[in-house]
Amino acid sequence: MDLLSLAAANALVGNPLWVPALEFMFVGGEYELRAEAGHVAVTGGSFPVFRNGERLSAFRSIRLVRGDALRVGAAQDAVWGYLAVAGGFVVPPQLGSASTHVRSGIGGLMGRALEVGDAVPLGRDWLDRVDHGRERALYVRRRPPMDPAIQVVLGPQDDYFEPASIEAFLSHEFSVTHRMDRMGYNLAGPRLSHAWGADVVSDGVVAGSIQVPGSGQPVALLADCQPTGGYPKIATVVSADLGRLAQTRPGSAVRFRAVTVEEAHRARLDFLERIEGLPRQVTPVPFDHALRVPA
To answer: Would you give the DSSP letter of residue 12?
Structure first.
């Protein structure tokens, strides 16, 4: 749901950026390390992190030894959080992925969300040999764009809407409702009227497609979206802004701004360059400040 935060978590523990991590929604839960020792990191937002009751913070690595308990609370500035471990989690790949698709019951650990008592196999721990085992911090912040609106490319069925609806879509705020999950977010705002009806012959959709059903209220499809859809798509969120949209909490407002395909491509390249630069931004935490919460 948020590639930047996933990559940041892996960078903190010395993994390649796309090693499988645990993704959680709103609150992280509690875990116990059964391995000898290793580093973990939590990212996504300002999630409070506790090691054996001692409060630390997100966006830093935390060294655990066998029997240590890690608890991750709720953040007020994010929806999705990520827990990475040095060496990664090891689960059998399904369709070339370690991801879990709960609706289909495939992938991850037995195709379902984690439950109390589950043991998740860990990969090889090697971060203790990096920086002499010191904990590390990453002072990453989402750079607020000059225009905080979510960038979209209009279409592919924007011609199914009245001109006034296109104008309303780009000039009014929409709030994220509580009808939200990995499949998509239902948005509430001005009603978007169709010019040619609310149905199309089902065609392909992607993460970022914004469908508008007969209610006139848009639905932004996200990571677990279906492969096809039968509602007209007024716009598509550019890939670089998908994480920002995914991290918008229920009740919060979003705006949309139309960009060209060329601008969307440039935004994606800038976004990928930023992700690739994350490992260079990781810095060891001084021993005498090992418990300091990053600013």
So the answer is: H
